[in-house]
Give the backbone structure.
Amino acid sequence: MLSYLVRRLLYAVPILLGVIFITFLLDNVMMSPESKASRVLGPKGTGAVRREWIHNRGLDQPLPKQFVNYVGNLAKLEFGTSWVTGRELREVFLKGAGPSLAITIPGFIAAFFASVGLALFQVFVRNSPLDRGLTLLSVALMSVPTMVYVIFTQAFLALGLSYFPAYGFGDVGSGMLRFIALPIVIFMLINLGHDARLFRAIFLEEMGQDYIRTAQAKGLSNARVLGVHVFKNGLIAIITLVVAELPRLVLGSLLIESLFGIPGLGNVLVQAIQTGDQPVIMVSVFLGSVLYLGAFILTDILYALADPRIRLS
Amino acid sequence: MVSAFFNHWLTQDALVLACFSLVFLLLRAGARNERWQRAWVRMKRDRAGLIALAFVLLYLTIGALEILRIPANGGGTRSILDVFTAGVATEKSYSAPLGDKLLDSVRGEKVIGRHLLGTDLLGKDVFVQMLKACRTALIIGGMTSAIYVPLGALLGILAGYFRRRVDDAIQYIYTTLASIPEILLLVAIIMCSPWGKGLGTMSIALGVTGWVGLCRLIRGETMRQAERQYVAAAHALGQTHWKIIVRHLMPNVMHLVLISAVLGFSNIVLAEAILSYLGVGAPVGTASWGVMIDAGRTELGRDPLVWWNITAATTALFGLVLSLNILGDSLRSAFDPKRS
């Protein structure tokens, strides 16, 4: 197991280098130092001021040397500062993760249970008009862009009927719940359609296996076959799928957070996009990839643990 | 000189028509394949799939009418859709669907024409704007597909057929791309692109990030096909790699490309709306559902509230994405009836 883990970690190194290379390419090669400087310094940054800015950041050095510096800074976790606010990016990201998780974790758990329940129910009534109707509903849920959910619930439930506050985060404690209730529900709805469809396919695939026929042949009820056998074995596939989705929770939901004014990472990113704050985006690409790679490794390990048929060597 | 040639309406129309003919020719070439013919027989029994197909064709037609331009009377050009909607009056500002007064007018100023879905801030007919936005969706969807479909399909076949080093290299590239959160990569590419924001940049960004899924799928299927006896037979008869790929493997994986392209189109349309909403997509002033939805956010908060703009855009977008999703599912079960 240990050697498998080490090998899996080593395998991630070239991929991480590839990711860094891509961000370097975008950040330092596709964009000339001059155009970068003029974007940050504005119209007053000409001549000597601009040259000094470029020199201070080492952007006048040859590209290979710049790349080495770039990798070195990332390894030291020195992400630099924002172009717009001038704040340390490390702190920005550390501070933003909490509020994002406050929305995404409950939403994620709710979506998981709702989708598994819906998928099991659909397999129970499979190929009936009800099953087809629910599948259509799942597809319909997937076909609405996120911001439409947010805008409509905000307009009707929050502003129109004043059931919930429309904007903001509140204080930690009881007051916060009312602020994050709507974002959580919407986060759940967004994921429900896609997940339910996927899980239904997984459960249906499990239904075709031999051991299910055996279970049915020995006279087990349909509900028991589904609730015990199909559920347990389908869950292995589902959990490994779900773990790969975990990094998305840290990054938060860009649209939900910015529209509800939740001070999480998603909101930070949307503001960076709108103000052209390039360092924020580049660092988030790097951090996001690190999280993704970690989740992929975790997925592989979980899969190996859960399914003894997979050999580690 | 060169840009004048490319910006001329006749060149652009010819390009658009060429693209449509290319898609048509590809589909006709596919239709000669026996697998496709059997799928079509099954598909004809699937009523939901056929209705979805009709809707998709309707959207394509409207989009094409807005893309194709002809010279206008006073110099310049206008689209064919403009000709059809020339009779629709422009008001001064908002008016409700089928309303006879301007919305914000204290004196109750009358509107000039009738508007099925009302008018927007600039007094333009919302129904016409909604139709015009098909153009943006079609252009983005078409250009992006033109980049990622050949790229993904070709790399997938190469990786699946040659295996070893080729496969390792291609796998490395797509694993690297796939380990970057997609939306962030999209934004990063658009932000750093030397051409600035716009439909072209957005298509390139969506194209270079979007091929991974297709490539993986085609790679797996090619591996499966390459082990079949007909490929071994072709080898034994001394056919070149190139001929085996083009004559034998491509026809047998093309149906997967078709299904992915249809489902992928719906993702592109949704992504266009979200990117436009984030401010890195369609330029301001483009008729786009994403831009209309963005405007709708403030319009739902104002008093008296304006709901028709955002509702029209959402409905149109929803209709297209839903039709594409249903069509894609229907194609999948027509090609592979065992797995659905």
